[in-house]
Amino acid sequence: MEKKFHITTFGCQMNEHDSETLAGMLLEKGYTQAKERKDANIVIFNTCSIRENADKRFFGTLGQLKKKKMAEKENFTVCVCGCMMQQQHIIDTIKEKYPWVDVIFGTHNLHELPVLLDNLYKEKHKQLSVWEDGGEIVEGLPAERLFKHKAFVNIMYGCNNFCTYCIVPYTRGRERSRKPEDIIREIRALVADGVKEVTLLGQNVNSYKGVSEADGSQCDFADLIYQINDIEGLERIRFMTSHPKDLSDKLIQAYRDCKKLCHYFHLPVQAGSSKVLKEMNRRYTREAYLELVRKLREVDPDIAISTDIIVGFPGETEEEFEETLTLCEEVRYDSAFTFLYSIRKGTPAAKYENQVPEDIKHERFNRLVDAINRISAEKNAEYVGRIEKVLVDGPSKTNSKTYGGRTETFKLVNFKGSPEMIGQIVDVKIIASNTFSLEGEVV
Ligand code: 5AD
Ligand code: SF4
Question: Which end of the chain has fewer beta carbons closer than 10 Å to its terminal beta carbon, N or C?
Answer without folding.
Answer: N
